[in-house]
User: What shape does this take?
Amino acid sequence: EAGVTQFPSHSVIEKGQTVTLRCDPISGHDNLYWYRRVMGKEIKFLLHFVKESKQDESGMPNNRFLAERTGGTYSTLKVQPAELEDSGVYFCASSQVGGLTDTQYFGPGTRLTVL
Amino acid sequence: AQSVAQPEDQVNVAEGNPLTVKCTYSVSGNPYLFWYVQYPNRGLQFLLKYITGDNLVKGSYGFEAEFNKSQTSFHLKKPSALVSDSALYFCAVRDFNNNDMRFGAGTRLTVKP
Assistant: This one.
């Protein structure tokens, strides 16, 4: 069974440009999460999809970030326009049930560098 | 709101020695605690979790963690470290008040031969 995959693995862009990150969850997992780790600090929650619906987007930093999950399969996270402080590693995770005790399985992350 | 602290940025141990990676938490209700490991150029891999029941939880790769409610701790342990255990370890917590998982800043474990 394939794990969570993310694309690209690395992205280097200039301030003001747009970047789109993609996450493919484990097949059959209705729950999809986005997280971000900035500057070696803690990993922070961004948002949670259940199928195609946003269950919780309380962690999204501002309206420059837009996440979608059309069709309830893969998800994209767009940053437009990118700022320097957006640099970090963006992780995607998926889980089957979505409850508090459910295990989330993480992808390898996308390292975003904004110059 | 729940939070997690990993008081050590770096832990160094010699191969064959026992290792401990520390984690303390703060929640308003019952905690659900997790440990993940990140190897170089890889995603976070699930190691183990505490939900309820026995305070000693056994996980992957010979790791175990002990839930201590009075000390609000969930330290990760392994009796005999391997060089291949060298990686970045994250502790995380959830509780019924919040949907999101709160992570610590991570502890880099280095096991020297």
